[in-house]
Design a protein that fits this description.
The chain is α/β, with parallel strands linked by helices. It has 14 helices and six strands. It folds into two domains: 5-53 and 335-344, Nicotinate-nucleotide-dimethylbenzimidazole phosphoribosyltransferase (CobT), small domain (5,6-Dimethylbenzimidazole Phosphoribosyltransferase, Chain: A, domain 1), CATH 1.10.1610.10; 59-329, Nicotinate-nucleotide-dimethylbenzimidazole phosphoribosyltransferase (CobT), large domain (Rossmann fold). Helix 2 (37-49) crosses helix 13 (319-337) and helix 6 (179-191) runs antiparallel to helix 9 (231-238). The longest helix is centred in the middle third of the chain and has 20 residues, at 145-164.
């Protein structure tokens, strides 16, 4: 049997370039370390891009969408039809991520893995039709292994298109009514964490709704407990098509040498799955923001991730990551365009 592609080696960070970029930071006309994390992230991007002065002109944003069978358990404040309706909003330019992509001059790709809305055929959307959403994971596996592998491959395919287009940064976003339930269940299974710690309001549940959502997750975790030690099977049991696509995308980015900017709670859970499957991919992941969903903080801590922003966001769509792009671009500009002490004829600090 051939090895699954997601287990293939990830590219190495260029340690020599990291050293040279860090040395450049020490020579810029400012006190050492005075630009804080803007310095460290510029050096990190230098190592990922393999050039002392990194740039982020070409940004690729891929939105992965899919519906969730667990919505039948009453875990969402919104009806499932919203997933399909938002696909039209994405490509029509009216969604938050659409506005952000325009402002960033980023390429926006929309991939529909499978929704309950029949026969969607929207110009500008890649409809893959893996299934009419996942199955109800409170009663069985969310997806078959074949469906899960198709979703993983969909994420990889997006990355290959991004790389072919010259992307220097990949942002994955998600859309799918019910997907905070799937993400919370996945995180609980992988971290062996109490459900109450990782379950939040999602799109706007009240306290009673959050409690009911937690009970549904408890039932699902008990049902699939025997396979909890297998990260891939846990993804197939509890995840969503769009979450699996994000996992595939993050792994492919690390293998293809494309830096990733991870979005909110759901995307961070996908990153956790990716790291469990192929730990070296962690080096290619930057994190855009810390969101309002209570489980996000815990998953970030597990990944030893320090996000760039904290704005109380809980929208998804890749929006938080997109908001952090200007900060990364400015970090690159400062790193690449500031004068050194020698260039500016400014006296350096004493040795």
């Amino acid at each position: 049997m051939t090895q699954a592609w997601w287990m293939n080696p990830c590219q190495s960070v260029n340690a020599e370039i990291v050293e040279q970029a860090a040395a450049r930071q020490q020579q810029l006309t400012k006190p050492a370390g005075s630009l804080g994390r803007l310095e460290t992230v510029a050096v990190q991007l230098a190592g990922l891009q393999g050039q002392i002065k990194p740039t982020l002109e070409q940004v690729w944003i891929a939105i992965f969408a899919g519906d969730h069978g667990v919505v039948a358990e009453g875990v969402s404040a919104f009806p499932q039809e919203v997933t399909g309706q938002m696909l039209l909003n994405f490509v029509s330019g009216g969604a938050a991520i659409s506005v952000l992509a325009r402002q960033l001059n980023a390429q926006l790709e929309v991939v529909d893995l499978g929704t309950v809305t029949p026969s969607l055929n929207l110009p500008g959307v890649r409809h893959l039709n893996i299934g009419p959403g996942t199955a109800n994971f409170a009663k069985g596996a969310a997806m078959t292994p074949a469906q899960g592998e198709l979703a993983l491959q969909a994420g990889r395919d997006s990355v290959l298109r991004a790389k072919a287009a010259g992307a220097q940064l990949f942002i994955g976003g998600e859309m799918g009514i019910g997907n905070t339930t799937a993400a919370s269940a996945l995180a609980c299974a992988l971290l062996d964490c109490p459900v109450a710690h990782l379950t939040g309001p999602g799109t706007g549940l009240n306290a009673e709704g959050v409690n009911h959502k937690a009970q549904v997750i408890e039932r699902a975790l008990a049902l699939h407990a025997a396979q909890r030690g297998d990260a891939l099977q846990t993804l197939f049991n509890l995840g969503g098509f769009e979450i699996a696509a994000l996992v595939g995308a993050y792994l492919a980015c690390a293998q293809e040498g494309v830096a990733v900017l991870v979005d909110g709670f759901i995307c961070t859970v996908a990153a956790l799955v990716a790291v469990r499957l192929n730990p070296v991919c962690r080096e290619w992941l930057l994190f855009g923001h810390r969101g309002a969903e209570p489980g996000h903080r815990h998953v970030l801590e597990t990944l030893n991730a320090e996000p760039l922003l904290e704005l109380g966001l809980r929208l998804g769509e890749g929006s938080g990551a997109a908001l952090a792009v200007p900060l990364l671009r400015l970090a690159c500009d400062l790193h690449g365009q500031m004068a050194t002490f020698a260039e500016a004829a400014v006296a350096d600090r004493p040795a």
